[in-house]
Specification:
The structure is a single chain. The chain has 363 residues and is an alpha/beta fold. Helices cover 45% and strands 14% of the residues. The protein contains 16 helices and 8 strands. It has an 8-stranded mixed beta sheet, with helices on both faces. The longest helix is centred in the middle third of the chain and has 17 residues. The termini are far apart. The mean pLDDT is 93.
């Protein structure tokens, strides 16, 4: 049994002696960064950092992009030019906030900041920009948070696209799932997705239990040791992608955004504890059926690529596509594929095009 990952040692040495953070910082500074302040009920005013780039057309569709963990606003950078200035298809006004406790947004200093509070914060960023009606896109926590946006603010959230699948287990869905499995009704791809989920639950979800139950223990590690932070994040980047060839600079830029974040490198894991223990049960409610039209893109090396047919339990499913390659960080691994899906769902031939036209015209 190997008791250490030699790549961590090599990355740590490169981070110390060769990695040019200032060069990466200069690239990041080319992005359209902004800050604003929002009032979150029960938590007062929070400073919010966000990327905002308007589309090439005046009638571009406002799109709220929401990252997760261990991601950041950095995830939007590859899809930003493809969405705002596409060669064909609809263009978008893209807004990508840093969630509270992440990146360059403020730290939350009170307990109880639930998924619904994260949703309120990013919704109010959109309102501050004058986008009273918009569509959303998200994966990981972005899946839960954009679902919560739709549940709380259906008058503003016209439709939602996600690149992660998760449903709330019920007796009915469990029975149908078992029956499909027993009768061999799942396709080869679907069975592979179920196997991937089984692997994740058995071998890949230890962080989930630790961060959801004992976040302060992990936070001491992440705050005290940059190498601990590197190892903790790198493990997910490696395990949750589909043989994506991460460069050393990519890995260390992702990790550095946590190390140098405004809230500190440890603050981000609090979302796991609050999601599990909040009084409003926001994470569970985000898995409930909502009336907001939903599109789902599935990538085989995501952490929970369940059969797409079961996503009907989340809402009116108007777009679905299962890809042959890709993992958890779709916007980074497969930016062209993700953008193609988003354009297909929200474009003139998509099932929500008439809703978007009427809603945005009324806006």
């Amino acid at each position: 049994m190997v008791l250490h990952d030699p790549k961590i040692k090599r990355l740590a040495e490169y981070w110390k002696t060769g990695f040019d953070w200032r060069a990466q910082e200069a690239k990041l500074n080319e992005l359209p960064h902004f800050t604003t302040h929002v009032q979150v009920e029960g938590f007062g005013e929070l400073g919010m950092h966000f990327i905002h780039q308007r589309g090439k057309d005046d009638d571009s569709i406002p799109l709220l992009f929401c990252h997760g963990w261990p991601g950041s606003f950095l995830e939007v950078t590859k899809i930003l030019p493809l969405l705002t200035n596409p060669k064909t298809g609809p263009s978008f006004h893209v807004v990508a906030p840093s969630l509270p406790n992440f990146g360059f947004s403020d730290r939350v200093h009170k307990d109880g900041f639930s998924i619904f509070h994260y949703a309120e914060a990013i919704h109010k960023v959109m309102l501050n920009l004058g986008y009273t009606k918009y569509v959303t896109q998200g994966g990981d926590w972005g899946f839960f948070i954009t679902r919560a946006v739709g549940a709380q603010f259906p008058e503003s959230c016209i439709a939602s696209h996600v690149n992660m699948q998760m449903i709330r287990p019920t007796v009915t869905t469990a029975a149908w799932f078992g029956l499909y499995k027993l009768l061999g009704m799942f396709s080869k791809q679907e069975n592979a997705g179920i196997s991937r989920l089984s692997w994740y639950l058995k071998e890949g979800s230890g962080y989930l239990s630790a961060q959801g139950s004992k976040p302060f223990t992990i936070r001491y590690l992440l705050a005290d040791s940059p190498i601990g932070l590197l190892a903790w994040v790198y493990e997910k980047l490696k395990d949750w992608t589909d043989d994506y060839e991460w460069t050393d600079d990519e890995i260390l830029t992702w990790v550095s955004l946590y190390q140098f974040s405004k809230a500190g490198p440890a603050a981000s894991v609090q979302i796991y504890y609050e999601a599990r223990h909040s009084d409003d049960h926001g994470a569970v409610k985000a898995l409930s059926y909502t009336s907001v039209p939903l599109g789902v893109s599935s990538f085989p090396k995501d952490i929970s690529p369940i059969p797409l047919s079961f996503c009907k339990a989340l809402g009116p499913l108007v777009f679905q596509k299962r890809h042959e390659k890709g993992g958890h960080f779709a916007a980074w691994e497969r930016p062209e594929a993700l953008v193609e899906d988003v354009q297909s769902m929200f474009g003139s031939k998509g099932q929500v095009s008439h809703i978007i036209k009427s809603q945005l015209k009324g806006d």
